[in-house]
Amino acid sequence: MKVHVDGIEVELPAGTSAIDAVFQSGGDVPYFCAHKYLSPVGACRMCLVESGSPRKNPDGSFVMEGEGDAATPKIFWFPKPMASCTMQATEGMHIRTAKTSEVVAKAQAGMMEFTLLNHPLDCPTCDKGGACELQDRAFEYGYGASRFGFDRRHADKHYPLSDFVILDQERCIHCKRCVRYFEEVPGQEVLDFIERGGHTFIDTEEGGLPTGFSGNITDICPVGALLDNVARFRGRNWEYDHTPTTCTLCPVGCSITVDARNGRLERIVAGENRDVNEAWICDAGRFGHPFASEERLTTPLIRDEDGQLVPATWDAAIDAMKRGFSGMRTADIALYLGADSTLEEGAALEALAGVTGARSVDHSPRYEVSVTAPQATLTDVATADAVVVIGADLGEEAPVLELRILEMLRGGLIPPEFAHGTAIADLRLVERPARRPERLAVIGQESRLWAHAGHRVSANGRGALARLTHPDTDELRAVLALLEGAERPVIILGADVLNGASGSFSANLSDLAARTGAKVIAIPAAANSRGLAALNLVPRAGGLPLSRLPEAAAAFISRLDPGTRAAGFTVVHDTHLTATAQQADVVLPAVTNYEKRGTVQNLEGRLLPLHPAAIRTGEAADLIRTLTALAEALGVKAPARGLRGAHALLADRVGLNLSDLPARGALHTFHQTFAAPAAPHTPKLWTERMRSRDRDWVDRIQDLVEGGWTLPVAPAAPQPGGDD
Amino acid sequence: MTYFENRQPLVADIFSRYPDSPQGRRSALMPLLREVQDAEGFVSESRMAEIAALCGTTATEVRSVMSFYSTYHTLPTGRYHLQVCSTLMCALAGSDELWDHLVETLDVQPGEVSADGRFSVQKVECLGSCGTAPMMQIGDDGYYENVGPGKCARILASLRQDLQPLPDNPVPVTVGTDGRQVLATGQAVGSSVTGLHRLPEQAGGDA
Predict the structure, then answer these.
(1) Which of A97, A178, A484, A544 has the fewest CB atoms below 10 angstroms from its CB?
(2) Can you give the residue ranges of the 4Fe-4S Mo/W bis-MGD-type domain (chain A) (predicted)?
(3) Chain B: residue nearest A433 by CA?
């Protein structure tokens, strides 16, 4: 299909919207209400273009213009500018944007004037300032002045929609993105326009937004109306250090951007990764970051003469470890690490265990069973024609997976990719989409997903898979029939079935998958459990698992909080003074995954990169560097002293080259996995530290004032070299 | 207690007018709202939730639709709900003075009900009686036209004794409980002229 945009001819797939045609041609159109992953509605009227199409005579020939060979199909222009986001581009269509059309430029400037009529001029105090679509478009396409000489509309400027989201009703420009988001993405119709005309405002009647995916509306709001309450008033957009990285609170591995200011993690916004989270993240991933900046350990702690933990230098900590481990065989020191550690850290620990000969090595949480059935990707889930979720509470285990399942229910549409990226207004996305609940079966405990499922079977997780293979009720028979009748079925397994799954489980699952042609996602226990399973990080013969920590002669525990200690000398490497750290002999400060460089593998087997955000962490160190300190205390040579060494170890050990990992990640299957009996694991997304614990700003400001602090104002005297 | 609990035949009748699908159920929203408002004078939050449950939607959706129309009330109204037209013609003819007078003498603000429970007031947009401005409508009963100071005083005095004077003109078109539009004379208008018929399936009537 050929379309002419401002005289440039572009070749486009049928069904493309006019706005995408313009972007594909390299042009620009301002827009507020259109959004890559939401249905186009044409609410803001900013994306006006002039358009016209050739017309055919009754005999099928084109109505021509001009004489003889110079004749071209005559273009019949629409009498008025049209909203390009809701208009489908057609063969031979001509489009004029503001670049070539005075009419369009004037119409857009006029629309902008309307939009700004009631918009308060509080950009200097607005959190969106500097990253505001309205600001940018007003600069590019507005008149620059308002002719409206009357009072603006006044409304509530601090209207809490929930604990996490605050609405400024004056700033809202009624683009309806948030309303459509809730209807179309999480399938919760909890937000809508109230009143009409100039009185319209956004509100909910459900007593607050449901926690889960509500934070995404703060990302998609084109103005500063919906704001992230955790990050509100914490910094301006140009002050933040933006770090695109991967969220490791659950095994989905959503793309996020971590914004830090003055060494504090202040805000997390969703990144875009079409293969993983599209543009959405869960509330825990967005709002649950206070732990990265609050009550952090910044120096090592050692025991003084009174047995109290006191701050010390790394050298003193290494000396303390030397004393503590003296006279002990290095093989007796148990090594444990949290399963959200990176692959590089895992490789470093595995290699060190090889050097010390440690038998008690473990990572946690993890499941015993390793699934060998064909692996489904998240895109497979979104495009499946049947999904069976067994024993999973996705809200706790992998929230964004739930969104991908809901995407499947509304037709599994994935916008096509253009040279300019994802379609801005994919016309196949429709408002209030018809869902197909009959394609989703949920077996297990009741969860949030139940409301969307056509088949619900209440079952105890343990035997759920066996019961599905040999159905004993009509409900289960219906689910099995759904699986067998589907062309692209996906089975999703959660903690309830994977906990304590025995050896025959994997074989049964493979049988079922082979019989029905299903692909499988077994949700790993933690962010990188899947990746770490490829390394020998499980108890070797005679070794102790983490659950038997109290029997260990001595232990090094990294970022785990079992709440107990080893019988002998215990070293804890953690970000906070946890219950375990309080019992330790030496505590070493760790960095969170927001501050690491490394690689994790998500639930579909995609390797995703971590990048370090600019967060002040004192002397905290990641596991690789901490292990060099441990090696020094033990008098052995550390196999990896840094990230590059760990990469070399990984290349050597599992043939993995991580040096050129694309930003979107890459699927990878490890050929060998290590499994061992594991303690049952209860997934829990929100932990206590993820909610901010120092909210007493007033007190802190009071302290500052009483402490004689004054606002740092530039001295009045002229500065050498001017005062710019 | 819920409003529709012991009115199941009525609910069934309302739903029978719409396709038996999730979208069809949502369409029953307007008559259900009208039913509650006619009976109680306003639609409270609990009623919104009840209607939402009946229609298979959320209370937010119900409130959104309801707040779009100025004829649905979320706050209680008095026995005589005085709706003063405030659009251009009536404004030129003195509707602002009429409004100020009503608010002052009845001692009610919009959203309030006078102490005796009789009066509530509301400014409304054009009711299509511009030739007889200023005008107001009382409840759903009819138009009181050319309401000057003397006429206003007479109307209020009668209302205080619960003797509502006959309106100068009935409301031009009303919608009956069966969903049909009729003139005050009883003559069917709008689509009611030809009767409401089910569209043939092929024409996409229920699609």
Answers:
(1) A484
(2) 240-296
(3) B23
Question: For chain A, give me the number of helices (H) and strands (E)?
Answer: 20, 33
pLDDT by residue (tens digit) across A24-75? Answer: 999 999 999 999 999 999 999 999 999 999 999 999 899 998 888 888 899 9
A301-369+529-602+614-667 in CATH: which number? 3.40.50.740
Residues in chain A with CB shorter than 8 Å from the CB of B50 are none
- In the beta sheet, which residues pair with residue A621? A590
* A428: confidence class by pLDDT, cuts 50, 70, 90: confident
Rounded to whole angstroms, the Cα distance separating A99 from A104 reads: 8
* Contact: A205, B68; criterion CB under 8 Å: no
What's the confidence (pLDDT) of residue B205?
A: 43
The segments of chain B whose pLDDT lies below 50 read 203-207
Inter-CA distances, A186 with A253, A447, B197, Å: 19, 14, 38
Q: What residue ranges of chain B are covered by domains with CATH 1.10.10.1590?
A: 8-68
Average pLDDT over residues A594-611: 95
Domain A151-292 annotated CATH 3.30.70.20: yes
- Hey, what CATH class is B80-170 in? alpha beta
Is the CATH number of domain A2-114 3.10.20.740?
yes
Parallel, antiparallel, or unpaired for β A570-574 and A586-589?
parallel
Q: Are B171 and B182 in contact (CB under 8 A)?
A: no
Q: What is the pTM of this model?
A: 0.90
ipTM: 0.83
pLDDT of residue B97: 94
CATH class of the domain whose range is B8-68: mainly alpha
Domain ranges for chain A, please list them: 2-114, 151-292, 301-369+529-602+614-667, 381-522
The answer to whether residues A401 and A381 touch, using CB atoms and an 8 Å cutoff, is yes
Flag if B58 and A206 touch (Cβ within 8 Å): yes
